[in-house]
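ASSEMBLY PREDICTION REQUEST
Request ID: AP-0331
Submitted by: J.K., bench scientist
Number of chains: four
Total residues: 1348
Priority: normal
Notes: Please return the full assembly, not individual chains.
Input sequences:
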Amino acid sequence: MGASGYTGEELVRILLAHPNVDLVAATSRQLAGKLLADVFPRLAHDKKATSLKFSDWDAKQIGREANIVFLALPHGLASEFAKPLLSAGARVLDLSADFRIKSADVYRDFYGHEHPAPDLLGRSVYGLPEIYRDQIRDAQLVACPGCYPTSILIPLRPLVRRKAIDRSTILVASMSGVSGAGRKVEADYLFSECNESVRPYGVPKHRHLSEIEQELLILADEKVVIQFTPHLVPVNRGIISTIYTTIASNVVNIDPAVIFNGAYGEEPFVRLLGENRLPDTKHVVGTNFIDVAWRIDKRTHRLVLMSAIDNIVKGASGQAVQCMNLMLGLPETAGLI
Amino acid sequence: MGASGYTGEELVRILLAHPNVDLVAATSRQLAGKLLADVFPRLAHDKKATSLKFSDWDAKQIGREANIVFLALPHGLASEFAKPLLSAGARVLDLSADFRIKSADVYRDFYGHEHPAPDLLGRSVYGLPEIYRDQIRDAQLVACPGCYPTSILIPLRPLVRRKAIDRSTILVASMSGVSGAGRKVEADYLFSECNESVRPYGVPKHRHLSEIEQELLILADEKVVIQFTPHLVPVNRGIISTIYTTIASNVVNIDPAVIFNGAYGEEPFVRLLGENRLPDTKHVVGTNFIDVAWRIDKRTHRLVLMSAIDNIVKGASGQAVQCMNLMLGLPETAGLI
Amino acid sequence: MGASGYTGEELVRILLAHPNVDLVAATSRQLAGKLLADVFPRLAHDKKATSLKFSDWDAKQIGREANIVFLALPHGLASEFAKPLLSAGARVLDLSADFRIKSADVYRDFYGHEHPAPDLLGRSVYGLPEIYRDQIRDAQLVACPGCYPTSILIPLRPLVRRKAIDRSTILVASMSGVSGAGRKVEADYLFSECNESVRPYGVPKHRHLSEIEQELLILADEKVVIQFTPHLVPVNRGIISTIYTTIASNVVNIDPAVIFNGAYGEEPFVRLLGENRLPDTKHVVGTNFIDVAWRIDKRTHRLVLMSAIDNIVKGASGQAVQCMNLMLGLPETAGLI
Amino acid sequence: MGASGYTGEELVRILLAHPNVDLVAATSRQLAGKLLADVFPRLAHDKKATSLKFSDWDAKQIGREANIVFLALPHGLASEFAKPLLSAGARVLDLSADFRIKSADVYRDFYGHEHPAPDLLGRSVYGLPEIYRDQIRDAQLVACPGCYPTSILIPLRPLVRRKAIDRSTILVASMSGVSGAGRKVEADYLFSECNESVRPYGVPKHRHLSEIEQELLILADEKVVIQFTPHLVPVNRGIISTIYTTIASNVVNIDPAVIFNGAYGEEPFVRLLGENRLPDTKHVVGTNFIDVAWRIDKRTHRLVLMSAIDNIVKGASGQAVQCMNLMLGLPETAGLI
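STATUS: Completed
Returned structure:
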């Protein structure tokens, strides 16, 4: 539902090619009646795309037709649609921020208005398979993480869990491609405004902070406050997150390679670059991988983590399909490699 | 001397248009005999560029012909040329790293070989007018700062000098356009490798750290060790530096606006964006300005500074001309606005 | 008037730095009351920009205050404003298409509606100094050419005038940067839609055809119908026009170098690249130059012309200022080199 | 063989994911001994890529191990390798220009030196499945077409064959991404030289002309001389070819839709955009499709054709795999959709 944006388009692309999925509907009020193939010319060769039209079905109808529903709707609208879908028995993967924050108070603080469906907050599972794989399998409602949180939480998780780093020192500088802003028709995202431009934004309190800190608190079992600065850079897709942490004072020897291999050695979508290579968005764009590297800086006693993802794939639609695979008992990589 | 690279080309461009300068020579072994206008088609309309040819004059000859000599040569080579030039009475502005580091030991540590002219180190002045204006006026040898140091030292200086921030907490994430790598013909800088790519590099010990820490030590009167990560982003020109600092624990009230206005209110090339605007490389590219913004993050007690410069202008050739203006007693902005 | 778009912004930039101009007003309904320096951060250092605010003055008031008025308004609106300005005695340079077409019929055919001020059509001079220099000097109303026509008419003019080419064979493929679309907030011009995209548009009947063919008719003294295809390419600024012509059958020997040198050898903004070099937008961006090259293809008996301009400067605002210089009896290059 | 360039890398990527292929070797003198996964970080997750190393096997050894050999070697070198491979019984797909030209004289004229293996010229099949599908099935040696020829020949073929257009009027303006130059480490292809740059090159006699005209001659059964101008535009991948033709004077009614549907309605990789849509490289990049559109210009009696391909996929490696599928009796789209 809400298939007209960049994450919606990417979902359609992945689902059409997915060996175990039958796409029954793609909704968009604005595009209703148009063929998928006409709206997304990349898919013009696809049989289903040349026969399936965008619909303006409501949640009830979708709930009757589909077992799995992806919501690629604006924040706020998603939770409205989730209720009737869940009631109709559908399993829902929401790509908006609506169900990511467990606390209605934190939601209000960061999003500036009351949460529209606070009763559902407790039922949602945070859709980061590397952390919540088992819960996702059985979930009715999955809150798919934001792109920045994905790129930050995966590298931080094994270190925070083991208390290997001083949690008060976490600081993240991220660089994102412009598709991260969605298909918003605003002057700030015009080609001539973004091309040959690099700029910080959302300083100091970006909305994604709320879900990052929530998840770090769960991992650390203590409140964690981090510094986070996103920057807009002129690429279509891709996020680099460079994460600075101070090694905890009581940790004498730390071998990040051992920690990361232990945590992610078997993960299908985490690629550990280790100490010799550095991430580059061009190696992950179009894929569901997250590349993770690290360096210990002996001069500063800091451990620097660096990650790269495609913000639309591992940062949104690909990860949502990875969750769906888990929910349906399919191979986790189905349709994604 | 060494006018074939990006900083050399920019110097030629600025000097040809400078109202008080007569460009007598531009040297390049490789391009000797070619007209400036043929090598730099942007300058094809300029009278001087259509008559002046690249020469392969040696330092002695240049020293006889010119009062002011800019060295846009590779590190190591610059110091070789500086000696005879200074002996011949020329005043020298060196854009390489050769004379930036006062300590031959630090130089060896960061550059991996002995300094070629340690006796000259004491004579050079660090060419950052916002800090060393008076010394530059009388200097025989100016060591023009690196692009990253320029973008970092100017925002940090007033805070470090007043000890308003905890000097052990300084951390910098910078993003640079590809021209920062110079006109190096290496696979890493091919269009198809840089376009649609964002990547950290030089982690954790970039060479520019040495001059940044040297200058911070002088400002703070104490050793300062900082964290610094450069990233390569697909723009031709421009650097964003996002600088994180923790406000010193003994500082109760801090008003960065007052501090920055006090320090830079009269500076011709420092534009203070204050707390409402954020820097964007596109507003400084092609100019000698540095735009500086700041935000206090109450959640983390950090002061975040952000700056934007053109790495080839304020980060190299423009700043060198600004220094030259000071040395010659010209208006500081001559040829630059 | 209408200073909020890309051509308006560029006009403001050029006029603020122009040695003979005093900018008395910049109008924009939408931005009225805001400082120029706040809207255009590139100009934040400029004294006038930090004191002059956008106004919503009407044409009458502008006509009283200004001797010269630039209209950077949407097509249709410009002619509405021109009347009272001219009545008030101001001299007007219009950057819209309103006064470019001499024939109200052709205007209707290409623009789809009646011309709003047909009585003024006869009074306007086409603002291409390389063709209409003398008429521009005395003009009250100058219709500044479109960017594509500028890039096409200058190379074609000396050949068409001499009937050196078969006028039925003219065919143009142009490539334009995205700023050519103006600051239009439309999905087609979002960064993620233009970056990594190359596309033809406006096929087969682009509006600029009307003024190109009108001017060719005047030059050839015969009706000329040309083929013209514009393409959008992911650069901010710049147009390449590659123009194909068949050498007229009665022309035995043709030496384009002689023809072009004869026509443009003294032109301050035409740079002839001749037969050894090819144009590149990067050499003209930010300047008022047009670079022109040519090749005779012996295999096909065609003469291929290639030109490069900055669509916002020589293709719009720079050329308008060049016209203004002529109108005011200033050096033609004042404020432009 | 020669897997280190962009076409080689793309071949490796496609072949590793191809359901019917077992990649036994990838050769590169320079990279011998390195894991594919280390050289191509995009493939770091692939099992084969993490175990297979680049080898420096000679043609003989490859001929023994492989049934199918792709040559992604520089022009000239490819024909040297082809001989022993063919002798050893391997079937060869050559991506260089070595076997595209049937005439050793034309080869000498365009490539400037004698053909190194003229005896093999007669044995090669031009690897454009849309024209030579049947011959490719049985070929021992396939000469894969250049990227420009692919983008030009497919749209022209049905019109030339039917003599629907005047063959003396064909004129092509193409725009290519920078990967078309290969992984050549030359200053011209540095990021800072290509970004924000648009430029024609290879005017007037580009090498690809030879194979385009050869194939048009075969289709038309008459000599065809065309005009062709390539332009370099700042995208990684993609070619737009805009092709101008005059409708033959004896053709009264022409319906391109009928012609194109007749010719390509069943083609798996030709997508006909018809008269309502225009091609855009972003819709084909990463795919083996060619998108084709057309417009009749009633003002000029010309038929304008426009095509878009990914120069590395349909223009090189994807098309080579399409040919391999035919040679092996596999579904033509295997590994490609």
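REVIEWER COMMENTS: The interface with chain C takes residues 171, 173, 175, 177, 193, 196-201, 203-205, 225-227, 229, 231, 233-238, 240, 242, 244, 278-282, 285, 295-297, 299-300, 302, 304, 306, 308 of chain D (CB under 8 Å).
SIGN-OFF: pending second reviewer
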